[in-house]
Amino acid sequence: MALHKGPQKPDERPMSVNPFFGEADPVAGMTEAPPRHRLPDAPMPSTTAYQLVHDELMLDGNSRLNLATFVTTWMEPQAGVLMAECRDKNMIDKDEYPRTAELERRCVAMLADLWNAPDPSAAVGCSTTGSSEACMLAGMALKRRWSKRNPKPGARPNLVMGINVQVCWDKFCNFWEVEPRLVPMEGDRFHLDPQAAAELCDENTIGVVGILGSTFDGSYEPVADLCAALDALQERTGLDIPVHVDGASGGMIAPFLDEDLVWDFRLPRVASINTSGHKYGLVYPGVGWALWRDKEALPEELVFRVNYLGGDMPTFALNFSRPGAQVVAQYYTFLRLGREGYRAVQQTTRDVARSIAERVEALDDFRLLTRGDELPVFAFTTAPGVESYDVFDVSRRMRESGWLVPAYTFPPNREDLSVLRVVCRNGFSADLADLFVEDLTRLLPELRRQPHPWTRDRTAATGFHH
Ligand SMILES: *Cc1c(COP(=O)(O)O)cnc(C)c1O
């Protein structure tokens, strides 16, 4: 959530509204728009309020053309109906809504099975508002386990991870006062290196995070190799460091498309896994999942029981109240697609990603960093000879055709590298992919004629005002 300030520019003179927006009589109806930065003095008809809000929202982007986000932008109408039916259900009222609670439990069981928990009945887990909350919970469990095995006063806990981690891990370290120990990128390695990670560990390391599906380029981190490096570390030093897998995206891709890839609870060192139900779990935002392999991985004292809603259901969450509709929609989607359905959907998405990546590569102006064959995501940069424009120009110009393709610089030690990233999601059809490649191809002659890259200069110039 953006941290908002008050009005930059207070409401000045009242603006008029379309007389049609008033009541039946356009003259007696509302003629002046309500204030925007303080509560209006009086109520207005629901039709007017609806029209005002609706019209303003027309200026939001078209979510299906947003190739920046991983979050689901299309669900079937039936899912929408179910979610509307569950609008009033509060996830925390597990006693009032026992069936919703039961669907949540079943989703956890299905994920424990999908992620190969050795004993699915021993696995514990919960729904969250997204992967960020799930990562906070998993990180807290790691921290608490560390403080129990290492009760030295004054010791400062640390968490080892690649510099490519999603911002939620920076938040976790900041909010919970854990030192982040980051493995930098090096050369053509854009994510964590197992050996380098093991070398950063010491007796105050609460865990190592492996990312299944790096946000920066869509690549899978080598979780099995990471576990092996930590096994070797344990043999050498006795340090037994648990691994958390951040499978925000890949947790719902790899089980269907990369069955031979061992990254989950099959690895004894993997203590916990999270995923975003609202990414490749294929549900509208906000639902995520956090699972622990067994009760030992989740210290009991972090779990709360409240009895003031009736019942006595254990919960592990940051929020108290939370909508139940997304959890219901997750269960619906699990039921609706099954393994075969998920496989088909994710395979189509991966096919689309690979096909666009290949065609972008064939344009000769670009160099691919990834090809969409892990997450259905690929990152690319301009080829060595391209000097008249840069990735920021491409991003800006693609917006003219409605496409949102983010351009950004990489973190240390590859700050020299700027890339564009395309995230393919269910609903980004082969048809839309063709249009995307056409639009990009059409831009190139103009971009090549530029005397030099434009966008960055302009950004720098705007930055100067601050
Ligand atoms: C998106 C993402 C997150 C954060 O997930 P939300 O569901 O948006 O809170 C965390 N880690 C990774 C790797 C991600 O891709």
TrEMBL record:
Name the UniProt record assigns to this protein: Glutamate decarboxylase
Keywords tagged on the record: Decarboxylase, Lyase, Pyridoxal phosphate
Domain of life from the UniProt record: Bacteria
Sequence segments annotated as region (Disordered): 1-42
Enzyme Commission code: 4.1.1.15
PANTHER family reported in the protein's UniProt record: GLUTAMATE DECARBOXYLASE (PTHR43321)
Cofactors demanded by this protein: pyridoxal 5'-phosphate
One Gene Ontology MF term: glutamate decarboxylase activity
Lineage: Bacteria, Bacillati, Actinomycetota, Actinomycetes, Kitasatosporales
Family statement drawn from the similarity comment of this UniProt entry: Belongs to the group II decarboxylase family.
Pfam family, one: Pyridoxal_deC
Catalytic activity: L-glutamate + H(+) = 4-aminobutanoate + CO2
Root EC class: lyase
